[in-house]
Amino acid sequence: MSSSLEETPDDRDHEHDHGRSRRRTRRPRTRARFRDLVAAEWIKHRSLRSTWIAYGVTALAAIGFNAGIAYDTYSHWTLQVSKDRAAFVGDGLALQQAFNSNAALLMALALGAIGALVIVGEYSTGTIRTTFAAVPARGSVMAAKAVVVTVVTTVFGMVVAGASFALTQAILDRRDAGVSIGDPGAFRVVLASALLAPVCALAGLALGAVIRHTASAVITSVVVILVLPLFLTDGRHWSAVVGHTLPYRAWLRLVDVNYSPIAFPWTTGGAWTVYTVWACAACAIAVTSVHRRDQ
Fold first, then answer.
1. How far apart are CA 8 and CA 5, in angstroms?
2. Phi and psi (nearest 5°) for 31?
């Protein structure tokens, strides 16, 4: 009886081989590469038809606003003296029509909403749980979203700002009142208008990551981008300082090529700094918010 219960050398070898095979199958879980996360977020971004419809409508509306004002100037042109034409260009009126404030506000509001929907859409459908289950490094996922949003909206802004400048100046050229991209201040106007898109989109992404509700995120974006600049003026010091920290006010400063010092002036360097701080702060908020609220 005892001999039948004894473990034979063959049994021990079999268990040893089985243990080795199990150890070989227990491979450490590899972390997703950041470029793979960016590629995955790009697929998500481009696969939504509604996103491209929003981009298309916004681009057509912004370019249409700019071209419409330029055409109105062309059709009601009354300046006949050459020095008046020179004054039209010298006073920066041609560049004001290259990208006007209505088009800037429209683009800023639309891009803020698009940026918010990038993350809010996943929270509302519950697909964000699948994403975080597949990639536990939530901060890396949000960083990848921020990269995709930045690249896509920067290209979008460049296309809209470049097309607006080319079209408006072609219209004004028919009255010998257009400018080229090499004229003083022209490139700054185009660049500031183009970069307004990613700054507002990243702000929307941060608001969406914190609020996680479509209507609330969009309303907050409208308040920050549109309402606050309207309430703040340059007549009081505190109001001017707060106003100078907003992206839309920074855009106004950058596109004003004939800036006249006021009670509380500021520089173009300060306006570019506002762009940079908003973009960096928005990315930081978007990345850290998923850790603070989802642990």
1. 9
2. -80, 145
The per-residue pLDDT for 154 is 97
Residue 58: CA atoms inside 13 Å, Cβ hemisphere, count? 25
Single-letter amino acid code for the residue at 38: V
Rounded to 5 degrees, what angle do the CA atoms 275, 281, 284 make?
145
Q: Which pTM does this prediction carry? A: 0.85
| Angle in degrees, CA 139, 140, 146, rounded to 5 | 90
SS3 253: helix
The predicted structure's pLDDT at residue 2: 45
| Straight-line distance from the first to the last Cα atom of the chain, in angstroms, rounded to the nearest whole number | 58
Written as one string, the DSSP assignment of 206-227 is HHHHHH--HHHHHHHHHIIIII
Instruction: State the chain's maximal CA–CA distance in angstroms.
Output: 122
Q: Which residue reads 């057509």 in tokens?
A: 60
Q: What is the pLDDT of residues 64-79, one digit of tens each?
A: 999 999 999 888 887 6
Residues 6+ apart with CB under 8 A from 76: none
Structure-block tokens of residue 238: 């505190």
For the chain, counts of helices (H) and of strands (E): 15, 0
CA angle 237, 245, 227 (to 5 degrees): 90
Q: Is it the case that residue 48 has pLDDT exceeding 50? A: yes
Query: Please, are residues 168 and 70 in contact by the beta-carbon 8 Å criterion?
Result: yes
Q: How far apart are CA 93 and CA 71, in angstroms?
A: 13
